[in-house]
Amino acid sequence: MNKECISTNLSAIRQQIAKAARQWSRAEEEITLIAVSKTQEKDAIEVALQAGQRHFGENRVQEAASKFPSLREGFPDLKLHLIGPLQTNKVKDAIGLADYIHSLDREKLAVALAQEMQRQRKRPSLFVQVNVGLEPQKAGIAPKDTPSFLRFCRKLDLPIIGLMCIPPAEEAPSPYFALLAKIAKENNLSQLSMGMSADFPEAIALGASFVRVGSAIFGARKKVELS
Ligand SMILES: *Cc1c(COP(=O)(O)O)cnc(C)c1O
Predict the structure, then answer these.
(1) pLDDT, tens digit, for every residue of 93-108?
(2) Distance 187 CA to ligand 1 centre (A)
(3) Contact, 130 vs 150, CB < 8 A?
(4) Which pTM value belongs to this model?
(5) Of 6, 24, 172, 222, which sits with the fewest C-beta atoms within 10 Å of its C-beta?
């Protein structure tokens, strides 16, 4: 994808976000666009930075570590979101790198994050990932187990700001976005990480505060990635 395309796509997405915000009587500033840059080269990310984009999402800690520390030198207000499944042996690097982690999905990971946050004196904001479609191949806490998992995390004093979901690929996403919003409200969480290239306007309609958009900005990825 060439440079013009990336900045054209970015401004088109920003306009669609503004439009959805107006349509649903939401303040545009409540909605943060995360440009999902997994598998993209650094020069593509630089084009997005030059076009004013500051929030980026990556799935893999190692890939993020290879791209973002140097990009931050030029753009100190860059924010990095880790949005993919996180193994406990990557927690140290994840805390060191990330401003936000969207994939808190099990007790063992919660304990590891709490310990490492204490050690590094650094507290990236966290989202608990909810498996809204109860899909066996997907990560996330079952909707019914989310309140008790949140209590567990709160005892660890983790900085949880909201919930994240990836609805089933083959179904209309809106009922799942509504479910995530309901669980968040019931648990006094204000932030919702939901909506991707194909469905971010629907997610905004249902309260998304962070939308994660990859291919609609950077073009189709070469390899298929499961999350
Ligand atoms: C890849 C990915 C995205 C972006 O997907 P697109 O369809 O390319 O917008 C969003 N969220 C997660 C968790 C992802 O893994």
Answers:
(1) 999 999 999 999 999 9
(2) 25
(3) no
(4) 0.96
(5) 222
